[in-house]
Design brief:
The chain has 139 residues and is α/β, with parallel strands linked by helices. The protein is 18% helix and 39% strand.
Length: 139
């Protein structure tokens, strides 16, 4: 399998309610191995290995209708992301499964955050995933 090159260094979402967004993202990103790295009065930055790749900051105008996909190491992480996100204020956009519109190896789950941003966890399996629900597409 080839090594993927990162083409986006970091992403920032502006949120209206930092506490609600922080609860959601902290819980949802933990199963993926991402943690709070930097906390300020109006911002929280997430990442791994001291690299803050994703930040939420309170302010205006809020970020809406954006899409972000977080990398997972396996199906279990995708499933745990989905469960944690929904338990902490996200709404369901697409339950975990193989999203065949992308590939037979694309195992992902999608939620909407509190501002209706499309937030995804995805695992690129080394081989086609045959023992999981196959989903045709996300709205």
């Amino acid at each position: 399998m080839s090594v993927r090159r990162v083409i986006v260094d970091h992403v920032l979402f502006v949120v209206a309610d930092l506490d609600a967004s922080r609860r959601l993202y902290t819980a949802a990103l933990a199963p993926l191995g991402y943690e709070e790295l930097y906390v300020q009065d109006d911002c929280v930055s997430y990442g791994a290995e001291d690299l803050d790749d994703f930040t939420i900051c309170q302010g205006e105008p809020v970020t809406t209708a954006a899409h972000i996909a977080f990398s997972a190491k396996g199906r279990e992480e995708v499933d745990a992301f989905f469960e944690a996100a929904v338990a902490n204020g996200a709404t369901i956009r697409g339950e975990a499964g193989v999203w065949t519109q992308y590939s037979e190896r694309y195992y992902a789950a999608f939620v909407n955050d509190v501002h209706r941003n499309n937030v995804e966890a995805v695992w690129h399996a080394p081989d086609p995933v045959i023992d999981a629900p196959h989903r045709p597409g996300v709205d």
